[in-house]
Amino acid sequence: MMKKYSFLDLIIEVLKESEIPLSANEIWQYALNKNFDKKLQSYQNGTLTKTPVASLAAKIYVNLNGKDSLFLVVSKNPTKFWLKERENELNLAKSKNIEIQKEESKFRERDLHPLVVKFLFESPDFNLYSKTIFHEKSHKGKSGENEWIHPDIVGVHFPFKDYEDETFKLCKNLNQISYKIYSFELKIKLDFSNLRQSYFQAVSNSSWANEGYLVALEFDDEIMNELWRLNNAFGIGFIKLDVRDINDSKVIIKAREKSNLDLITLDLLVNKNKDFNEFIQNLNKDIDISDIERIGYKFYDEIYNDEKMQKYLKDKKII
């Protein structure tokens, strides 16, 4: 009788083929690319878990705790695995891994800003005008004084875009206009090695906003439970950015909306940073005018059309 193909078999098959150590998420992605997942017994009988990466990681750790473990942990930040039977190949594999990481890191976090700005404008969940905040434009302070006070991107939703003129006038007269401002912290990749620092950066630099978000191009599925736990405690949302189709980017965890804003921090940012000061100045002007035809577009980041965005992605080697 043929042996049933298990998660353990899948892990071993992937790590026998791979030229570099892999994380649990990378093992699963490799398996999907090779269609190894379709060999799993649970896939064939329709009971495949909804959290395959977590199940895969659990299998590795259980095996690591045994006497005759098949695996080695070769790095902690992030955690990557290798087959013990290939231990003599490890130095070469590590070298290849370093080369691949250098190749993959040709673009910077800030190169992703136009993607985020386009998504935030076109997404019905946001419909924002956004502005990049250049940290280097802040007044110099004592060591650590300005740390974690600047968001990467700020955004505003103008509600007068949503209503007919008469409805908007009534809302204004009843003092029921709800302008919302947002804060975004952007990372190329999120895993357990940088999750907490990144999350609390987002917490720290969004206290002045109605909603704060952490945005990532890539993330390990293993961190999702922790992201949900942190959201429950601190309210920061999470967005997965999709470079292949920006409109397929997703709000995976919704931010908790705040009505009472930290005006002390907002005033600090207005005083410290030229970009943020200009953002608030122009926001006030646009609110005073309250006219969709007169929004100060030039004061916000440019929203690339699809053609310009595709060229930008290729030029920056993001795709």
Automatic annotation (TrEMBL):
<protein>
    <submittedName>
        <fullName>HrgA protein</fullName>
    </submittedName>
</protein>
<dbReference type="Pfam" id="PF05066">
    <property type="entry name" value="HARE-HTH"/>
</dbReference>
<keyword id="KW-0804">Transcription</keyword>
<dbReference type="InterPro" id="IPR007759">
    <property type="entry name" value="Asxl_HARE-HTH"/>
</dbReference>
<feature type="domain" description="HTH HARE-type">
    <location>
        <begin position="5"/>
        <end position="86"/>
    </location>
</feature>
